[in-house]
Design goal:
Elements: H1 2-49, E1 57-58, E2 76-77, H2 93-96, E3 99-104, E4 110-114, H3 123-136, E5 140-143, E6 146-153, E7 156-163, H4 165-200, H5 202-239, H6 244-271, E8 279-282, H7 283-291, H8 294-300, E9 304-309, E10 314-317, H9 319-336, E11 342-349, E12 355-363, H10 383-389, H11 398-409, E13 413-419, E14 422-430
Parallel strand pairs: 1-2, 9-11
Antiparallel strand pairs: 3-4, 3-7, 5-6, 6-7, 8-10, 11-12, 12-14, 13-14
Helix pairs in contact: 1-4, 5-6, 6-11, 7-9, 9-11
Length: 433
Amino acid sequence: MIGRLRRRFVIIAAVSLLVVEMIIIGLINAVNYIQTNEREEQLISVISENGGEIPEFMRKDKQHPPHEDGEMPPMHNEKEGEGLLGFSMNEETRFQTRYFVIKLDDEMHVTYADVMHIAAVSYDEAVQYTADVCTSGKTDGFIGNYRYHMTQTDDGKMYVFLDCRDDLRTRQRFLLVSAGISLGGWLLVCVIMIVVSGVAVKPFVENYEKQRRFITDAGHELKTPLAIISANTEVIEMVSEPSEWTLSIKNQVQRLNGLVADLLKLARMDEGVVQQNFAVFDLSDAFIDIAKPFTTLAENKGLTLEVAGEDGIKMNGDEGSVRQLVSILVENAVKYCDEGGHIRAELSLSGNGRHAVMTVSNDCKEPPEVPERLFDRFYRADSSRSREDGEKRNGYGIGLSVAKATVEAHKGKITCKAENGRIYFITKLRVHT
């Protein structure tokens, strides 16, 4: 159990960290994509607004001297940046940017072609790119490594193609590097979590060990006084006639012996020391053999018990434990069924045929608010009714805890639900094929 707890702790922590890292990686790469995309769009916009070329930006300390008449020559000062992540242009931008421009007249003939700012594209290739874009009917987008944008001019159309191969590579490399670093960090943290998981669950382990030792010691200590009480009761019955008092004592001793046995079994199952003798057996026969005899007990209490089982269902498991599981569920239904109610115990195959579905239900007008809590040890669905009903309600909890532990030992699943005035215990066990 401690090993399962440590694994669960590591898995939950690792999955949570992985989700957080994926969100962070996604946000970082999204910001990088938006930033480069904005830069590309603004570059194309600048080229389009300036007739197909990037204007020359001059620093103040490199301005041309005045003309002979004293007038300053025209110049473009460096554009200020738009914040830390914003786009800005400077005097080097026109030399760092690779692009080509094609202008068409209204009849779609090439009237101007500028391929001087790019070495990877010839005139013919530029014209072909433009023809492909015109055929697509789009005014902007990507074609190969080039982002394009069409601007309507007075004498036709102007297409600006911006070389974005460096940005595309940068985005891809940034994604791979960020993902690789994050994955490496995640693996490192997982290793650290595996190492320190023992320290993290240590307080729970200590409390659990104290509880387990208490249950085990108390169970063994109770055996001796119960044996003495039982023996003394038999002596009293030998000396005098059996009475309702001696019968009550014997019944309570029997109940306490069963409770102690269940407690010790739970403790051993938690420790993992219970030997499960797994073998293939006929689950259908075992279910009928155990459930059918409870029909008489149900009739004696004014109840009706219906048992239905599909033939030929086999499973690989501990037959003794599974038989006890059936006994616990059916006995629980008989014990807590409403007066004059109906009980149904059914065994069938699931829709895909991979699991045996064991359903035990009974009438219950006042089900617990949280049916799943019935599997908690010593849980009382209604403490006030427990005091009023006395013995009827004292068994809630420990038997179903044993049932749940048995199902989990067989890698199955047991659930409880309440609907339409009935309570259902549904068990799924993998069948042998």
